């Protein structure tokens, strides 16, 4: 299993990101929330993901970038769970950090595991 996060897997379409917020479903485990929709456009990869941190909670760009780096790394290490559970479906995901304190990687990784399990359960039903 490759634990990479390539350029093709990154969600960059502004239209898709807006659709995630307006029409997408969400699952949350504090301090994370994931918005998801089933892929509408043809995608070369089964999952396209983006990460976001609120400017309201973290004024300094350094802090926001640090948290986004942790989110991407945690997703990269745990995405195989989602890929194994998908039945040839394509999804667009947006991970949002909604906490107010800077996390450490260990806590964030645990929360990401729980969030991915909830996401898999919700997409199966």
UniProtKB/TrEMBL annotation:
<dbReference type="InterPro" id="IPR020568">
    <property type="entry name" value="Ribosomal_Su5_D2-typ_SF"/>
</dbReference>
<dbReference type="GO" id="GO:0000049">
    <property type="term" value="F:tRNA binding"/>
</dbReference>
<comment type="similarity">
    <text>Belongs to the RnpA family.</text>
</comment>
<dbReference type="Pfam" id="PF00825">
    <property type="entry name" value="Ribonuclease_P"/>
</dbReference>
<keyword id="KW-0255">Endonuclease</keyword>
<dbReference type="GO" id="GO:0004526">
    <property type="term" value="F:ribonuclease P activity"/>
</dbReference>
<comment type="subunit">
    <text>Consists of a catalytic RNA component (M1 or rnpB) and a protein subunit.</text>
</comment>
<keyword id="KW-0819">tRNA processing</keyword>
<keyword id="KW-0540">Nuclease</keyword>
<keyword id="KW-0378">Hydrolase</keyword>
<dbReference type="GO" id="GO:0001682">
    <property type="term" value="P:tRNA 5'-leader removal"/>
</dbReference>
<comment type="function">
    <text>RNaseP catalyzes the removal of the 5'-leader sequence from pre-tRNA to produce the mature 5'-terminus. It can also cleave other RNA substrates such as 4.5S RNA. The protein component plays an auxiliary but essential role in vivo by binding to the 5'-leader sequence and broadening the substrate specificity of the ribozyme.</text>
</comment>
<dbReference type="GO" id="GO:0030677">
    <property type="term" value="C:ribonuclease P complex"/>
</dbReference>
<keyword id="KW-0694">RNA-binding</keyword>
<dbReference type="InterPro" id="IPR014721">
    <property type="entry name" value="Ribsml_uS5_D2-typ_fold_subgr"/>
</dbReference>
<dbReference type="InterPro" id="IPR020539">
    <property type="entry name" value="RNase_P_CS"/>
</dbReference>
<dbReference type="GO" id="GO:0042781">
    <property type="term" value="F:3'-tRNA processing endoribonuclease activity"/>
</dbReference>
<protein>
    <recommendedName>
        <fullName>Ribonuclease P protein component</fullName>
        <ecNumber>3.1.26.5</ecNumber>
    </recommendedName>
</protein>
<dbReference type="InterPro" id="IPR000100">
    <property type="entry name" value="RNase_P"/>
</dbReference>
């Amino acid at each position: 299993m490759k634990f990479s996060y390539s350029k093709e897997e990154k969600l960059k379409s502004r239209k898709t990101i807006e659709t995630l917020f307006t029409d997408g479903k969400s699952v949350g485990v504090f301090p994370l929330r994931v918005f998801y929709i089933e892929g509408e456009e043809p995608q070369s990869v089964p999952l396209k993901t983006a990460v976001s941190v609120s400017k309201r909670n973290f004024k300094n760009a350094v802090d926001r970038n640090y948290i986004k780096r942790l989110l991407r790394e945690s997703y990269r290490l745990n995405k195989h769970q989602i890929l194994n559970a998908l039945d040839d479906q394509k999804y667009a995901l947006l991970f949002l950090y909604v906490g107010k304190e800077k996390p450490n990687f260990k806590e964030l990784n645990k929360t990401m595991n729980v969030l991915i399990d909830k996401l898999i359960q919700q997409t199966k039903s």
